[in-house]
Every structure is written in structure tokens, then in C-alpha cells.
Amino acid sequence: MRAAEKVIITTAVTGSVNVPSQSSHLPLSAGQVADAALEAIEAGSAIVHLHARRPDGRPTFEVEVFEKIIGRIAAQSDAVLNITTGGSTAMTMEQRLAAALRFRPELASLNMGSMNFVFSGIADRVKEWKHDWEKPYVLNTYAHPFINTFDKIEHTLRTLGEHGTRFEFECYDIGHLYSLAYFADKGLARPPLLIQGVFGILGGIGADHENLEHMVRIADKLFGDDYAFSAFAAGRGQMQFATHGAWLGGHVRVGLEDSLWIGRGRLAESNAQQVTKIRGVIEDLGKEIATPADARRMLALRGIDGAGGSTTP
């Protein structure tokens, strides 16, 4: 692993997993997502990972919605914008890539394989639904996998990569590291790689701290010092995994996409609240927080005005 000289905080602002009935603090409209991202940036996040939703919270791929989000953030900050190519399990590949192809960001997420991506358990915890779409949406994940075959991964690497976009490689299991190594050997995934270890999703690797250390060991074996590592655990393990990942020399990710909580039995009131908490932990470890400029340098991003397009609408 390329040990972090400064720790990059990524904030995953809203995602496509959690639904409005779980928390009134989840950003939904384009304005709410942009506001939440800007608050997280102000609190110390160098990167914001962006999904879009309709005002009722339904995940959407519509470029017009992304444009409202991206325009606001780009006009008011210099943060790195990381646009999803994962979208949701209900979207086609064309839909999932629409925003990233339109805005050609410096950074885009890329799931490294097809998998059972199950969050139907949300239905067991919600007692009252705000919208008719929510319950069928979460239950559907028990029967329908998330598809990202090798041809789709290669298509994403080629079509976005030619515009200068680099990738946050989301690895939900050890096998995903080997898949990434395959594309690195083909010259399609270029170092320095940003590997995002994802733990605690039903269908992926469990949120056990032994798994975090094992993933780093295998990544070290495959990539040596040609990668930076970041880790997060979905749900209650969020802060513990972020702390462990930073202690190992990596970067961190927080945000209401990954966990709606700030402490035991306490819903987070904002993304910024989570950023503030993990920033304090990182600084207590004696580590510095990366600025957006630091993140661009460490991850070899092209910069806001670099060749290959811009996230400015």
C-alpha cells in the first residue's frame, strides 16, 4: 500500500441503498444533495461521491438532476467530484454511465464485479413507509443481483478512461482484487490505483476487522506500492472500520450512503457530522487531513482544468 502522507476523507452523500423511511436526514432532492456535499466539504472532505435521487428519494440516472447537483458543488468548492457508475441495481449499464459520460469527472466509482448486493433487510426494520416505491425496491434485491460483468467493466474503463477520468475501484470481496489485477495487467487500470474496500454488504465480504487486514495483505501482494487504500463498512461498523483503515495507513470514507448513524441508537443529522467525527479521530491518530489539492496529487487526478473534460456543466 502507498501509505497516506495525508488522509483523504471521501463522503458518500446519499447513495441508492438507504430509503427516506429510514431517516428524515437523508438528502433527497438535488438541492439537498448539493447542500449536504458542500457542508461535508466545509467539514474537511476532499472528495464527495455522488448519486442522484428524485425528490421522493427514488434513485435516478437523469443527467438533468446530476447537473443541478454538480453545478452547485463545482461553483462553490474545489472538491474532487466522484460520480457513481454503480447507480442502482434497477438501472441498465447505459443509465448507470449517463452522468459520468456527460460530465467526464476526475474520478468515478467502478464496482469490480457482479454480486448479490442485498439490502432487503431494511424492510424488516421499517415500520412505516413514506413512499410506495420503497418496500418493493429493497425487497427486490433479494432476488436480483447487481450485474457488472467483465465486458461492462472494460467498457467503462475504456469509455471514461479516454476522457481522463480515473477510478475508485470498489472491491466487495477478495476476488474483486484479482479482477482488478487482471485489468491492471491489460493496461486498462493504471496506477496509482485507488482501491475502496467495502465491507458489510450482504453478498460481499463481512465487516470483520480480520477481513480488512486480509484485503490489505492481498492487495499488497498484487499491487505493491502502486495503490492507495480506503475502507468503509456499511452500517454500525462505519467509524470503527474508518479508524482501522486510517491506522493501517489508508484513507477513509463516511457518509449517509454507508451509514445513517453517528453513534449507538443515534441517527446522524448530516453527512458533515460524520466527517467532523472521523476528522477528529484521524487527527487524534496524529495524521493530517488531505485537501482537495492533496488528493489530486496523491491520486494523480487531472485537476479541475485538466485535459479530457470538466465536471462543470
Descriptive overview:
It is built from 11 helices and 12 strands. With 313 residues, it is an alpha/beta fold. Strand 1, helix 1 and strand 2 form a beta-alpha-beta unit. Helix 7 runs parallel beside helix 8. 38% of the residues lie in helices and 16% in strands. The strands form 3 sheets. The chain has an 8-stranded parallel β-barrel with strand order 1-2-5-6-7-8-9-10, surrounded by 8 helices. A two-stranded antiparallel ribbon has the order 3-4. The model is unreliable at 306-310 (pLDDT under 50). The protein has helices at 30-43, 63-76, 93-103, 122-125, 134-139, 150-161, 174-185, 209-223, 238-247, 271-284, 292-299; strands spanning 9-12, 47-50, 52-53, 59-60, 80-83, 107-111, 166-171, 193-199, 227-233, 251-254, 261-263, 266-267.
Key words describing this protein structure:
two-stranded antiparallel ribbon; 38% helix; alpha/beta; 8-stranded parallel barrel; 313 residues
Strand content: 15-25%
**Overall average pLDDT:** 95
Q: Total number of helical segments?
A: 11
State the order of secondary-structure elements, H for helix, E for strand: EHEEEHEHEHHHEHEHEHEEEHH
Dominant shape: globular
Note the main sheet. 8 strands, parallel, barrel
Number-wise, the strands total 12
Structural class: alpha/beta
Radius of gyration: 18 Å
**Adjacency order of strands in the biggest sheet:** 1-2-5-6-7-8-9-10
Helix share bin: 25-40%
